[in-house]
Amino acid sequence: MGCNEKPPYEFREDYVDFIVNGRAWNPQSGPLCSDFSTDYYEEAYKETPAGYLTFSTKNCPNKLTLIIALQNVFGPKVFDLRTDSSVANVVFRDYGEVFSLSGGRYDSLLAGNLKIVAFKKRSLTPHVDDKGDTITNVDPGWVEGTFDNIMLISKGGGDTARINKDTIKITGGRFGIFFN
Questions:
Q1: Is residue 9 classed as helix, strand or coil in its secondary structure?
Q2: Are 138 and 124 in contact (CB under 8 A)?
């Protein structure tokens, strides 16, 4: 690829779409609050393992956040979020009490699956410009996938009455995100 050519993935935009308790997710920024963030560690760093991917999406005005954290992400992969809990984590925060009766943090996973269908590592591309200087471009990485049938309750809720009233159900999820 030449200096002025652009890779085809460059024209994509980050996206995270899903349905929570029957309502479409609507990410929104707010003052001092971004609607989307992502981090990827290709190599281990301090206590963070290699292949660690985390992304979050927020509806800032309503105080809602979905956070997904995965380990060992180096290519396409399927996670059973219930049985792979040591390498996959999902948290939904509803501090605005929009989707549930008591609001709060939902991080006790009852069910769910996530599939990474596309993965491209970030890369460094050196080239020589018109002045003869070598410039290195950082081409971002890209990860894309789906998630579905995620059911979360708050850690304090183990009885049937609370589960029926205070369960966060996430369905029809899909995402595509860049990482540097």
A1: helix
A2: yes
**Cβ–Cβ under 8 Å, residues 112 and 106:** no
What does the block give as tokens for 52? 């660690």
Residue 169 has φ and ψ, to the nearest 5°, of -115, 125
| Per-residue pLDDT reduced to its tens digit, 78-133 | 999 888 877 888 888 887 778 766 667 888 888 899 999 999 998 888 888 899 88
Determine the Cα–Cα distance for residues 42 and 59; give it in Å rounded to an integer.
Answer: 28
For tokens 């579905």, the residue is: 148
Nearest C-alpha neighbor of 150 from the set 76, 84, 73: 84
Query: What pTM was estimated for this model as a whole?
Result: 0.80
**Which range has the worst mean pLDDT, 54-58, 106-110, 119-123, 170-174?**
106-110
Where do the H-state alpha helices sit in the chain? Answer: 160-165
Q: Write the pLDDT tens digit of every residue in 125-166.
A: 888 889 988 888 888 899 999 999 888 876 554 444 444 457
- The residues, any chain, with a CB within 8 Å of residue 4's CB and separated by 6 or more, are none
Instruction: Give pLDDT, residue 73.
Output: 94
Query: b or e along 80-98 (b: 16 or more beta carbons within 10 Å of the residue's beta carbon)?
Result: ebeebeebbbbbbbbeeee
Name the helix (H) or strand (E) containing 56.
Answer: strand 52-59
Cα separation, 90 vs 149, whole angstroms: 12
